[in-house]
Specification:
This protein is an alpha/beta fold and 311 residues long. It contains 11 helices and 14 strands. Strand 1, helix 3 and strand 2 form a beta-alpha-beta unit.
Length: 311
């Protein structure tokens, strides 16, 4: 009983409502035919936002979107944001957990990059934060941003449950996922896309930043991703040999093995994850230089194939 009223009260009490009202944001929101369309418009009205709403009615037949449909929806969102001169565009998934963002220039921000941008905003606006948590699969860009603020970065498994558990740890002031989910412990211990929208508006107001400007100036690494087939019975052997291969390097063993080769002056990482459902490995290599990322990806793909085949 009174669930919506209680939610709204907690929502607004966890924000600096006045500064958001003064900013008078103009937004485009795609509700993806989800239940957030029945709750969020009144909250945005309270925050003094002007809003163009898309897909703002419940439709059980449209609650899931394939990747192509998501990309098409983001292109539409981008077109409307730029055509109307809006401040920012948001797309909430039907479940109200994941968030997609289009900046004021119409650029669709990838989920990995959005995590970096929101991390920077939260640390700029909240210097008292001592610790944040992100998945082990997150970019090294996060570590660079965090190092500029002298805070600890806790690396978790990629599941929502692991992120929720991290949010309950002492001193963790923010938990961000790589798929568009964000947890703000002062409000909730689960991802909430509606609160993430409002919090991003607050952070943009407090810092005076714009999404597009942050995207340009924050560090960017090059990513190479590959899937490498491997029979189930060979996965254990490959992981043992990979553990031995990386034992002299800095590494993190969460979900799979992530290690940092440290070639020359370049910052690089190699992350190998055995797929839980399919007979393959995910290889994710990151470096400041694309040529080095590709070279490392080639090297470790070759090694994994050799170990798989017993060579």
């Amino acid at each position: 009983e009174r669930t919506s009223e209680s939610y709204r009260q907690k929502f607004l009490s966890s924000l600096n409502v006045e500064i958001i009202r003064k900013r008078k944001f103009k937004l485009v929101i795609d509700y993806s035919h989800g239940v957030t369309a029945t709750i969020f418009p009144t909250i945005l009205g309270t925050l003094g936002c002007e809003m163009v709403a898309l897909n703002a009615y419940l439709d059980a037949s449209k609650l899931t979107r394939e990747q192509k449909e998501i990309e098409r929806a983001l292109r539409q969102l981008s077109h409307i944001v730029t055509s109307l001169g809006e401040d920012i565009g948001f797309m909430l998934d039907a479940g109200g957990e994941k968030l997609f963002v289009v900046d004021e220039e119409g650029n669709s921000i990838s989920s990995d990059r959005l995590l970096v941008i929101v991390t920077k905003l939260i640390l700029e606006a909240n210097p008292e934060i001592k610790k944040i948590a992100v998945p082990i699969s997150s970019s090294m860009e996060i570590d660079l941003v965090a190092s500029g603020h002298q805070i600890q970065v806790v690396k978790t498994k990629g599941s929502h449950l692991a992120l929720m558990n991290a949010a309950t740890e002492p001193d963790v002031g923010f938990v961000g996922g790589t798929k568009g989910g964000f947890i703000f412990p002062e409000f909730s211990f689960a991802a909430d896309a509606m609160f993430a929208v409002a919090k991003i508006l607050e952070l943009l107001t407090v810092t005076g930043e714009k999404i597009s400007a942050l995207n340009r100036k924050l560090p960017k690494f090059k990513m190479v991703q590959r899937d490498i087939p491997c029979p189930w019975e060979a996965k254990g052997k490959v992981m043992r040999l990979l553990t031995k291969e990386s034992e002299s390097m800095k590494r993190e063993e969460v979900d799979g093995i992530k290690f940092y080769p440290g070639i020359g002056e370049q910052r690089s990482s190699v992350f190998v994850v055995p797929d839980k459902e399919r007979a393959l490995f995910h290889l994710r290599v990151e470096s400041a230089e694309e040529s080095l990322a590709r070279r490392l990806a080639d090297e470790y793909e070759r090694k994994i194939l050799e170990w798989r085949d017993g060579k």
